[in-house]
Design goal:
With about 150 residues, the chain is of the alpha/beta class. The chain contains three helices and eight strands, in the order βββαβββαββα.
Length: about 150
């Protein structure tokens, strides 16, 4: 599983002219799922995501997690995080999870984040989305389950 996390002042997702999710201060999170991922991997990724301390404290030190700043999340499914560009110029997405599996884990992540007490807005799985954001920093973190889940 891969997550691209952007610290934002605001972010929104629009599908066919309809806003599906909108947040102020918080995380815009693009989520890519592979077929090897399961709920146990998702749980570890959620724990890492919600524990990220990338907001400034009263001394200007990057030291605070999302819950300490009252932040929200905009969670967007993005299979293109598994693009393989190693051969030619047209990416292959063979490593991306099958849609049924990816959608199930995407919804699992949304529900778990909400159960943990966070406001989580969403995109629309499988839709062409317009994402707008104001990145604060800029601050972008890439979480890859292969790097910290053994």
């Amino acid at each position: 599983m891969k997550m691209v996390v952007q610290r934002v002042e605001n972010a929104s997702c629009t599908v066919e002219g309809r806003v599906t999710g909108k947040i102020d201060k918080g995380f815009l999170v693009f989520i890519g799922v592979s077929d090897e991922d399961d709920e146990a991997v998702a749980d570890k990724m959620i724990k890492k995501l919600l524990g990220l301390r990338i907001f400034s404290d009263e001394n200007g030190k990057i030291n605070l997690a999302l819950k300490y700043v009252g932040g929200s999340l905009l969670l967007i499914s993005q299979f293109t995080l598994y693009a393989d560009c190693s051969h030619g110029n047209r990416p292959s997405f063979i490593n991306a999870g099958k849609p049924e599996h990816a959608e199930k884990l995407y919804n699992y992540i949304i529900n778990k984040v909400r159960e943990a007490g966070y406001t989580a807005e969403t995109g629309e799985f499988g839709a062409e989305m317009i994402i707008e954001l104001t990145n604060h920093g800029p601050f972008t973190i890439i979480l890859d389950s292969r790097e910290f889940i053994k």
